[in-house]
Records
---
Amino acid sequence: MRDFVQTFVEKLKVEENRDRVSLVQYSTEPEAHFYLNTYTTKKPIVDSVRSLRHKGGRLLNTGAALQYVKDNIFSPSSGSRRQDGVPQILILFSGGKSNDEYSDTAEVNFKLDTHSTKDEIIDAVKGGRPLNTGEALDYVKNYVFTSTSGSRLVEGIPQILILLSGGKSEDDVLVPSQRLKAAGIVIFTVGVKDADEAEMQSIAHSPNQAFMLREFSDLSPVKQQLLSAVISHKDTVRPGLVQGSSVKRDIVFLLDGSDDVRSKFTAICDFVAKFVESFDVDQGKDQVAVVQYSNTAVMNFNLNTYKTGDDVVKAVRNLRPKGGRPQYTGTALQFLKQWQVTEI
């Protein structure tokens, strides 16, 4: 199988603007070995394929692996150019029957008499509802927690989460936030307008790491307060990590991208961009990632996607709101824990 992949790759024209290749291995759970934007020439791809080792695992969950590829490989943050009209091709190798039935059961999202106006129907369709919520949570827990995102937790680099929310979550946030804290992630929260103060405080590392604002126009003034809190927190500065005048940090922004904040999303992006400008990304010290969420979470870019502050700021300013009616902050936090931070 490995020889076949190697031979296949050698026949491709791998360049930045030509062919791109990603490789995922799966059994019980999938694992990305490299993404579509990891390599821009053929040789490192062939070398990586040659060095592959058998993943192992007792169960074969093909359905979950397919969903993983759809959500995390065929995405702009991983190098997919689907939006540019570039053909998207998946080649699946399997040696057995799948043990999962990932999305083959039907669920009624709403009945013929549930909604009485066109706008209500459009909102329901846009927001959607979780399909097999238990399976989706298992998927996030089991499949997205990977070091390939660039987290440097094993090196002792502080892990920082900044959550910005414009409303109250409809799912439980306590357990996911506790898991993040147990994993060593320091959480700061910014709640705006309809966000619940008690909820924001329960998610944050401590209540005084939760910042509450009346309007999105108040984001700019709070930037310095939040920045001071981040750089002075005892768990975000660790001995032996200082290089020059800067301390290494992995900083992840979890942004409310629901329809409720769509009209204010530019202000959110401006806030994040100005915040990023205060950190040292260019020298490989600080790393930044952005995740949006509403009823589901989606990766905009990973910790290891961009190597310069200018690139991060440009990516942030080019963000578009994810959309979706309900907020599932707890689910997003659990997504983040497993996607952004290396395995423990």
---
Amino acid sequence: MNNYLLRAVTAWSCCSGVAVRRCCNSIRAGPVKGTCNLPLRLVQFRNQDDTGRARVGAQVVASDPRPGQDESTAGASSTSSSGEMVDITAAIPGIGGDMKQLLESGDVGMRAVKQAIESGKHRLDSRNVRLCAPILNPDKIICVGLNYHDHCRELNYPVPTEPAIFSKLFNALAGPLDDIVMPDETKELDFEAELAVVIGQKGHKIPLSEAMSHVAGYTVAHDVSARDWQLKKNSGQWLLGKTFDGFCPIGPAIVTPQAISDPHNLGIRCRVNGVTLQSSSTSQLVHKIDAIISFISRFVTLVPGDLILTGTPAGVGVSRVPPLWLQKGDVVECEVDEIGTVRNPIV
């Protein structure tokens, strides 16, 4: 079953059905304490038409590109008709009940996932499942504002000397394909594509040198924002404008550090109705991931499953002249290379 091992050189988008092979020349993250050093793509899913509890799965990549095959199309079957995933909840009933439980199990759980993939058992056809948010019950959703150099420039804001921290509440979480309900309370709905970090190991006052070892993986986030409530109302506090129901779609998977070439050099994009409005790179991050983790942990204890949204690049609607606001009927796609795409209609 070695051909079915998840490989660090391959990733795919759940929505576009396109696999992008990336060579892992330098994995900045290094060994991860508490999360086995394995390249994995972990998801949560429900069977189609099933409203029951989400299950944990691992997406399976069949093989590397064949000689002469275009890397942009290699592995496309992984998300098309022949795509497979492993039902980890069925394979590891003791620790695979939900993603947070699996992350808390550390090395034991991740090695069990690897064994489940290699066993060839509990396979599912991806056509028969619907992906959910890859984690539904984090202790915390922590966000960083003004954290891309190009975003600071477009807003004519000074580059922050330390991370600007705010939060979202759990009601904001949504899946990679879920509808975003536009609240009647806002007329200024905006989009923000973000790279999100998933914590894998508990820590408080984490030294900078050890911060990356606390990362379980990465996912894509859409930091939906009601700018009128974020910037003009609620006495200038950001919370309400950031945490309406469904204002934080994430997914399609949690991709472990060993499957990411360099988290600080990934393309990041947002498309609205097929038009690219944000296109940048995580190399533009003002405060890098290790610095963010170390800074946040000075104030709060980070635990497995915590989400950290690392900021958005230039191109957001509020920065445009005139401003560009989302409307009902729009479809927003947020994408990060080597991780995938979340695609959410505005309804």
